[in-house]
């Protein structure tokens, strides 16, 4: 169930800004500032040679979807892939110089198995229409936005949210680098409330893009026929 607008009043007022989640502990560790540190991509394209970790992997899980695309559905925090700038929802265009559009996960597994070097060569594409927005909490107006099922439904005028370009019809994908796709609104709220220093960084995409593509990443059954760990 979505959080009611009455419950979300903390986003437009200072009351409740320090509330803790129901389980009594914050979802974001206090005193740990979160910074978005992705290296710049060229037109959304990243060409990367990522060194493998101790387990022989770079720290991502990819999924095949019906459109014939291979999308990243999980990135291990602070892994080589994470530090290289890969994020949830990015598309893997090629692996070891072989284009992956229309290829099956079996082919991806084969390419990974054949790779005996200590690094993997990837070409990826950032999420279409993605934006990172950092919002500062106002003592009187709060963060200045509301959401339902992760979708921004209201942005208050003359707030940091409005000045930073946050607007309706945007879907929240990450909060402080934590993926929140499929997460209940009250849990998203808890992460925002746990933000250190009264600032929160959101990754948002247009709702239309989210509904057409990324909402399906988490809805497909987790089975070995569609998933590959790299």
Automatic annotation (TrEMBL):
UniProt keyword annotations, A-Z: Repeat
Cellular component annotations (GO), alphabetically ordered: cytoplasm; plasma membrane
A Pfam family this chain is assigned to: PDZ_6
Protein name as catalogued: Uncharacterized protein
Matching SMART domains: PDZ
Family matches, as InterPro entries: APP-Binding (IPR051230), PDZ (IPR001478), PDZ_6 (IPR041489), PDZ_sf (IPR036034)
Keyword Repeat annotated: yes
